[in-house]
Amino acid sequence: MSESHLIYPNLAALSNFDRDLNYTGIVTEGWDDPLNLVPVVLLVLCLYCGLPSGFQSIWALSNAVIFHPMDYIVGALGRGPKYLTDEYAILDARYWPLNDPSVTWISNVELVVMLPLCFFWYKGCVQGKSYRHVCGLLASGFQMMGTLLYFGPEWQMGFIHLPTHVNCGLEVWSKVGSYLCTETDTRNCHTYPQNVFRQHSDLQLKVLQCYGERLSVLGLNLTVTFL
Questions:
Q1: How far apart (Å, rounded) are the C-alpha atoms in residues 182 and 79?
Q2: Largest alpha-carbon pair distance within the chain?
């Protein structure tokens, strides 16, 4: 059994996690999965409706072809390229390692509701249909609710499923960029805050990247809807 996951606190507690996260070079494992063709098929269907023109259509296309199917296929199912599935596990263990019901349902909604909405949003944009505004607003509304349901419970639990050390979340960042922690590890965090910050800055960056992506998708959805 591989122990490469033990450096990530959110995965170290999983007794059944046996994926080897130590690899170098080009990782080819998982690229032959048939589900990898889903984004390709979606792209062909979208382009059949018309070529993108303008930021709104490009953004709707990206949501329909990449973001929402990837969250379901790679995140919820753990299928697809090994590098992507591993990154989803590292960023949030609630995806395929734990199959958390709330995150799984959010991923299901992305596939069943958000993906079709974004497809018709794109189609409406490239064909000048008036329903594009309705699809954009609905997609933004679902994105807002999904972001709250995805982010809120984890925040309340102290980000225990994210790759943060000693159960630290957004509150660990001070105004000067120091790494502060809770009372669970006062020796390391309070005595050597800068050293701990440098040691785990890559993991904190992953946390910010994870939630930053969610919030940016929400913000862009709301912005381009009114363009």
A1: 36
A2: 62
Task: Determine contact, residues 193/186, Cβ cutoff 8 Å.
Answer: no
What whole-number distance in Å separates Cα of residue 204 and Cα of residue 91? 10
Give me the residues paired with residue 173 across strands.
Answer: 179
Half-sphere exposure of residue 16: CA atoms within 13 angstroms, side-chain side: 5
Q: Report which of 109, 135, 107, 113 is spatially closest to residue 122, judged by C-alpha positions.
A: 135
Q: Fill in the amino acid letter for 117.
A: L
| CB atoms inside a 10 Å sphere around CB 42 | 20
pLDDT tens for each residue of 173-213: 333 333 333 333 433 333 333 333 344 455 555 555 555 65
- Measured in Å, how far apart are the chain's first and last C-alpha atoms? 52
Position 227 pLDDT exceeds 80: no
Q: What is the pLDDT of residue 213?
A: 58
Are 159 and 167 a contacting pair, CB within 8 Å? yes
Provide CB contacts within 8 A for 141, sequence distance 6+. Answer: none
pLDDT tens, position by position, 46-55: 999 999 988 9
Q: Is the pTM of this model over 0.85?
A: no
